[in-house]
Amino acid sequence: MSISENLKNIKSSLPEHISLVAVSKTKPATAIQEAYDVGQRIFGENKIQEMVDKYNELPKDIKWHMIGHLQRNKVKYMAHFVDLIHGVDSIKTLKEIDKQAKKHHRIINCLLQAKIAEEDSKFGLSFTVIKEILASEEFKALENIKVIGLMGMSTFTDNTDQIKSEFSNLNSFFKELGTQHETLNVLSIGMSGDYPLAIDCGSTMVRIGSAIFGNREYQ
Ligand SMILES: *Cc1c(COP(=O)(O)O)cnc(C)c1O
């Protein structure tokens, strides 16, 4: 099926309150344009340089989400346009985003990445550290970032019970935090393989790549 057909099918299956991030990493600008032409406006990339190149080439009303692990020294290249940064996993990175956002007189929205998967390869913060960051004076002093929610990635497994328990744990924590921090409204969980499960577990934002654009040759 074509990109536009995939997108229409997925969109029609999503509850209305769910935001769809079309993950276009490694895909050419023509593929993004095809999705754009049928109304998609939020796109996710995992490499800053690639996102910058696509930003320069494509329509300016696209909302660009950085979903990959961040290299702090490259934050400056996207600070003038990035709409949401999903994978923030340290106070150091928050400070760098704040510093770069300030230069452009912007407030950049961020999600803190929570570690919910078993395997060591997945980045992210423990729930305890997330609470500590949000309560810290260092964090409260940052005026040019806004933490609007949490992001998580489940373990890469066919075991749906395990994925479900990881997502549910994160959702419980997200709800608990929400009672103390009213700006936290976004829960970014769910990819091509597990987004229906993520939605059952409280997702408000799904990040879908291969189910829209087809398989990637690398990454
Ligand atoms: C690549 C990627 C996705 C999309 O993965 P698919 O399985 O292709 O849907 C979602 N989130 C992150 C963080 C990614 O790196």
Q: How would you summarize what this structure contains?
A:
This protein is of the alpha/beta class and 219 residues long. 40% of the residues lie in helices and 19% in strands.
What can you tell me about this protein's structure?
There is one protein chain. With 219 residues, the chain is of the alpha/beta class. The protein has one domain (3-213): Alanine racemase (TIM Barrel, Alpha-Beta Barrel). The chain is 40% helix and 19% strand. The protein has nine helices and eight strands. It has helices spanning 3-13, 29-37, 48-57, 91-103, 127-135, 137-140, 160-180, 195-200, 210-213, and strands at residues 19-23, 42-45, 63-66, 84-88, 108-115, 145-153, 186-188, 205-208. The chain has an eight-stranded parallel sheet. Helix 7 links the parallel strand 6 and strand 7. The longest helix is centred in the last third of the chain and has 21 residues, at 160-180. The chain starts with a helix and ends in a 6-residue tail after the last helix. 38% of the residues are buried. The structure holds pyridoxal-5'-phosphate.
SSE order, as H and E? HEHEHEEHEHHEHEHEH
What general outline do the C-alpha atoms trace? globular
Total helical elements = 9
Say how many strands there are: 8
Q: Structural class of the helix and strand makeup?
A: alpha/beta
Which ligands, by name, code or SMILES, are bound? pyridoxal-5'-phosphate
Q: Which residues sit in consecutive blocks of at least 5 with pLDDT less than 50?
A: none
Query: Tell me about the biggest sheet?
Result: 8 strands, parallel
Ends apart, CA distance between termini = 22 Å
Percent range of helical residues? 25-40%
* Count of separate structural domains: 1
